[in-house]
Each structure stands twice: as C-alpha cells, then as structure tokens.
Specification:
Layout (H helix, E strand, L loop, with lengths): L9 E7 L3 E4 L2 E3 L6 H12 L3 E7 L10 E5 L2 H12 L4 E4 L6 E3 L9 H4 L7 E3 L3 H7 L6 E8 L4 H15 L3 E6 L10 E8 L4 E8 H16 L1
Parallel strand pairs: 1-4, 1-6, 4-5, 6-9, 9-10
Antiparallel strand pairs: 2-3, 7-8, 10-11, 11-12
Helix pairs in contact: 1-6
The chain binds cytidine-5'-monophosphate.
Cytidine-5'-monophosphate binds next to helix 4 and strand 9.
Length: about 220
C-alpha cells in the first residue's frame, strides 16, 4: 500500500520458530523460517507503524526499522509478547511456538551410553501465548493468530480454523496450508483469513510480502 494507513499505530509481530532445549547442544524445534512474520513486520513498517518484532531463530534477516527482540523458547516469547503488547494496537502471532517443552533440561549432554537403545522424553505443555494475550487484551486492541494446517481437505481445514479461532479468542485467524513443500521456508504463501464471526474475510495467494499487505489491509480497516 502506498498510504501510511498504520501511521502512529503500534504493531507487535512474533516470527520464527521457538526452540526448546533438551541439553546444552540439542533442542526440539520446527521448520518455521520466520519469512511470513518478517514480511508482516516489513509491510507494517512501510505503512507507518511502529513495529516490535519478537523473533525466534529467523532464517532470514529482520527488516530494517523494527524494534527487534530476540528470544529462543516459548516461555521467553511469552514474556516478550506480554511486555510488548501493553499499549499495542495490533498483535500478530505469526511464530510457530512449540506446544510442548522437555520437563527436564539436562545440565550436560545426554549420553547414549547411559540411555541404551531407546529413550523416552517427557514433555510438558507450553502456555498458549495467543490465547493468553487474547484473553487479556485491551479494548480496541486487535489480536491476530496464525494456523498452519497440513489438512488437505478445504472444508475440514476451514472447520479446524474456525474452532481454533473460537478456542483462542483471537479477532482474526490466518490459515495457511503447510506441508513438506508448502508454507515453511518458501517465498510464497496461500492464505485464508477468518474473523471472529467465522466469516472468510480474505483469500490471498502470492509472495509473503504481498500476502502481508493484504492481511494488513484487513487489519487497518478494522482499526478505524
Ligand atoms: O494451536 P496452534 O499452534 O495451531 O495455533 C497457532 C497459533 O497460536 C499461532 O498464532 C501461534 O503463534 C499461536 N501459539 C501460541 N502459543 C502456543 C502455540 C501456538 O501463541 N503455545
């Protein structure tokens, strides 16, 4: 967009994938590159917003002009998101947050000689950052979630999106299909945006930057 329709707005974007440590050298992670979140941060900055980018292990550089806050784990992202969200107009949770983390983090490297041929990891649920922020949001604040689904059936995917939106209490949910070759780490994206009334308010295909602008069009319209 050529216009500065987000001038004076404070926008928080989370991006990347959290890593949950097992020991000093190993972690549980995911394939998020951070590209869609970075594109949102870049597009919001271009439209005049003051952007805080909470980044977990980005595979591409953060855009210029954002307030970059680097985190690693889901718990660190939760703290950074809570802090940055105070007074923000928009919070966009594009990061892939680990649903679980190891119950115990080993002080030293886990050794196979001590574990034998099989080993069991015990995991504990991470807090749902998006649901927490949505529950605590200030009047007028817009909270936007993402849902990366591998479900191939369109109707089933929309159904998953609608129930996720309701469960998390977000204002908007961006659905995108991911698989071994789609979504993560690619330059393009194919998304559907649902609003809290469960209506489809946007369908967009294209570069992650063009998709980011289309998502921000919906957000900007709802801020006014
Ligand atoms: O439940 P699911 O992981 O599919 O939800 C995805 C959305 O929820 C994304 O916006 C993601 O950033 C957010 N999320 C979160 N905290 C978690 C898990 C996901 O904020 N622990």
């Amino acid at each position: 967009a050529a216009q500065l329709d987000l001038a004076g707005r404070r926008v928080v974007v989370t991006a990347g994938g959290t890593r949950e440590p097992l020991d000093p050298v190993r972690f549980l992670g995911n394939r998020s590159s951070g590209r869609q979140g970075i594109a949102l941060a870049e597009a919001a900055t271009a439209r005049g917003a003051e952007v805080v980018l909470i980044a977990a292990h980005l595979e591409v550089p953060a855009p210029a002009g954002v307030d970059l806050r680097e985190v690693s784990t889901a718990l660190q992202m939760q703290d950074a998101a809570a802090l940055a969200s105070e007074g923000a107009d928009v919070v966009i949770m594009a990061a892939a947050v680990a649903d679980y983390r190891p119950v115990e983090v080993s002080e030293g490297k886990i050794k196979k000689d001590e574990r034998g041929d099989t080993m069991t990891l015990e995991l504990v649920r991470n807090p749902d950052i998006l649901a927490g922020l949505a529950a605590a949001k200030a009047p007028g604040q817009l909270v936007v979630g993402f849902a990366a689904e591998t479900e191939p059936d369109r109707a089933a995917q929309l159904e998953l999106g609608r129930s996720k939106l309701a469960r998390k209490g977000a204002d908007l949910l961006v659905l995108n299909r991911v698989g071994w070759s789609e979504g993560f780490a690619t330059e393009r994206n194919d998304i559907t945006v649902l609003d809290a009334g469960a209506d489809i308010v946007l369908e967009a295909v294209g570069s992650k930057l063009s998709v980011a602008h289309r998502i921000l069009d919906v957000i900007a319209e709802r801020l006014h």
